[in-house]
Request: fold
Amino acid sequence: MAVVKSIVELSHDYLAQVLKPGDNVIDATAGNGADTIFLASLVGETGKVWAFDVQSCALGRTYDLLGEKGLIEQVELVEDNHRYMRKYVREPVKAVVFNLGYLPGGDHTVTTSAPDTLYALEESMDLLQDGGIIVISVYWGHTQGEEEKNALADFLREPKMKSWQVMEISIPNRAKAPCLIIIEKKEKGTN
Ligand code: SAH
Reply:
């Protein structure tokens, strides 16, 4: 097994460290459902996953996968823009996952966008419990990808982010490789 892990493996490692049965979590970009499945298995039947996507075909694939794995009970699929997450989620959450870019095997012109992603990120930060994390896999190979990546980088440098723990992991030796951003809401009383 390679010591240097993929972006997907790393993001799942972070989530597995933080999540336990009974937690509430958000998958802001359900896509093909891989993260939704992972989250649903970590929080179990006593927890809850809200999985958003603007494309019904993505939610259809996610629904089928959840059915195959017997994980449908704890998941609410929401066909809406993640910028409106607070219309649906009214309780604190332990994690929010974003997987930016287009749906693999789908319409490559439908992608996440800087304004919606940043708006949804701020909403996620408001919903996050102390000790919770936001995990963003930034696939930026698409047309607006660079703009979205730069907008995120600017946002993370803003003074208000000083009270958060932020980490970025990148792959410098591959062109337009995805990167991973982890944002942790510090537990009160910790440094
Ligand atoms: N690039 C990743 C997968 C990203 S899937 C990979 O290769 O693994 C991104 C998903 O986000 C798509 O299914 C797309 O429909 C969805 N999406 C795009 N904009 C959105 C928005 N504003 N709100 C919710 N979902 C959105």
